[in-house]
Amino acid sequence: MAQLGGGNQPILIFPEGTDRLLGRDAQRVNITAGKLLAETVRTTLGPKGMDKMLVDSLGDIVVTNDGVTILKEMDIEHPAAKMLVEVAKTQEDEVGDGTTTAVIIAGELLKKAEGLLDQDIHPTVVANGYRQAAEKAQELLNLISFEADDRDTLLKVAMTAMTGKGSEAAREPLAELVVDAVRQVEEDGEVDTDNINIQRISGESVNESMIVNGVVVDKGRTDPGMPKQMEDAKIALVKYPIEVKDLETDAKISLTDPAQMQAFIENEEQMIRDMVDKIIASGANVLFCQKGIDDLAQHYLTRNGIYAIRRVKKSDMSRIEKATGATVVTNIDDLKPEDLGEAGLVYEKKIFDEVLTFIEDCRDPKAVSLILRGSTKHVAEEIERAVEDAIGVVASTVEDKKVVAGGGAPEIAISKGLKEYADSISGREQLAVAAFAEALEVVPKTLAENAGLDSIDALVDLRAAHEKSFYIGLDVFAGEVVDMYQAGVVEPQRVKKQAIQSAAEATEMILRIDDVIATKGTGAAPDMGGMGGMPGGMPPMM
Question: Which of 54, 169, 206, 371 has the fewest CB atoms within 10 Å of its CB?
Fold first, then answer.
């Protein structure tokens, strides 16, 4: 509740029970929330990062060191912390990797901003300095990037993304699968990763994973009497129910004698038979239906030797369309021979406890499937997350054709350039640019800490080495600084570009907030009185 004095009569502005934080208090709480969130995921960064075990209210377990997965699974309440979660989600959507990097950079930027605010530097000045630094960082990033999209570089990019994840033991064969899949679906320099279908099946080692040049659908035939295998397949994609539709109104049909009932049933049968006849007339011998298929229709389809699957996902229909050249038909009456797709082989196969349909031998398919294996469900899930990251970074490299060295090398190089740039700026923004430069060093510092190395020694060695080359990064396995490009540790430029940009923008937005008003009773606002009892005023995140 807020009030304005009017004699002895208070004037109410906000409803009773409203919590409000003003000025420095609001900034302090928001900054602390962001720092705490960054600290939560910080230990997962790098090849020697640790995993988190997340347990939900039903007891389901997720074990991962994937930053965006951790943040999505956590029940985060604080509004400022949620803004950093959005940074991770954006990073995941745009690039597919670097989510932890983006969040810890944002957390460090907030930490450095807190020190500047304590020196009575206005938040707007800090935000402006950060914006200038982010723009200069993008220029410096272009200078330290190099062009490459050859197969060898793509394999290195994929393996770098999977290092430190559950798939590390088999990262080389998985990298081969990922690169082959991305190159297969590439069209005119663009990669739509939705055209890469991942089927996760537990029960075997990760080395049993494979690529299918076509589409794998996680369903079997609708009727066991249908052919189990279809060569020279003519594929119909139908987004129309092969069954009698229910009435859309509450109308009732009154039947007065058995003959009418028999006629009604025969009419329904004739409608279904007509639909099946149209499929047969088109020349199709394989049917994928996005809707339902009536039992009677299944009988007719089986009798005519047609392989059919019902209730196929929309995403699978799109991939089959890309792989076989078929056209999705929304009305069975419109199905024509030219709408059919082609595949050399369509067959059903059971792997472990999953029944799958394989569509193979397609002519230049622009959709592929990866079958990932893992000894247990949790292992297979973590392998899938690692492969998804690898697909994202390889796709980014194919599209942009620009990569940078890994191991903290770009952050040190950009930090060095920003410190020099700060000396050329007048005014208090200079301090914010210098703070931005120091904040970027959190990445190599964290890599060292997570590997059990002395972070101060690592930073000193990196700074000295960067006087000669901006390829020098931290080899956490050897515990020394090396040329990361020669060591085969490379990352897409887009990962760093997006991480720095989104972290800077989120930080700037948080710094400009000087008033937090939370209305009680809506179910959307956190308790901002005691702030959940966590240090710095952040409510429990889980």
Answer: 169
If residue 229 lies in a helix (H) or strand (E), which one and from where to where? strand 229-238
HEC sequence for 156-181: HHHHHHHCCCCCHHHHHHHHHHHHHH
Cα–Cα distances (Å) from 397 to 26, 44, 166, 205, 503, in that order, read 41, 24, 23, 29, 21
**Look-up of token digits 């398919």:** 365
Q: Which of 43, 64, 90, 100 is catalytic?
A: 100
Are both 18-147+405-519 and 214-247+259-364 of the same fold? no
Q: How confident is the model at residue 379 (pLDDT cuts 50, 70, 90)?
A: confident
Active site residue 66: yes
- What is the CATH number that goes with domain 18-147+405-519? 1.10.560.10
% of the chain residues with pLDDT over 90: 45
Which residue of the set 389, 446, 475, 507 is catalytic?
A: 389
Query: For residue 403, which of 139, 99, 146, 91 has the smallest C-alpha distance?
Result: 146
Catalytic residue among 44, 66, 101, 163, which?
Answer: 66
Nearest to 92 by CA among 68, 64, 65: 68
Q: Which of 64, 69, 90, 99 is catalytic?
A: 99
pLDDT of 238 > 90? The answer is yes
What CATH number does domain 214-247+259-364 carry, 3.40.50.300, 3.30.70.20, 3.40.50.10190, 3.50.7.10?
3.50.7.10
Residues 41, 46, 50, 55, Cα dihedral to 10°: 50
Of 145, 98, 179, the closest CA to residue 402 belongs to 145
pLDDT tens digit sequence for 39-69 = 988 999 988 888 889 888 888 888 888 888 8
Residue range 62-90, pLDDT digits in tens: 888 888 888 888 888 888 888 888 888 88
Does the annotation mark 389 as catalytic?
A: yes
pTM over 0.85: no
For residue range 183-203, what is the model confidence (pLDDT) as tens digits?
999 888 888 888 999 998 888
The yes-or-no answer on residue 357 being catalytic is no
55, 172, 205, 383 from 379: Cα distances, Å: 16, 17, 9, 6
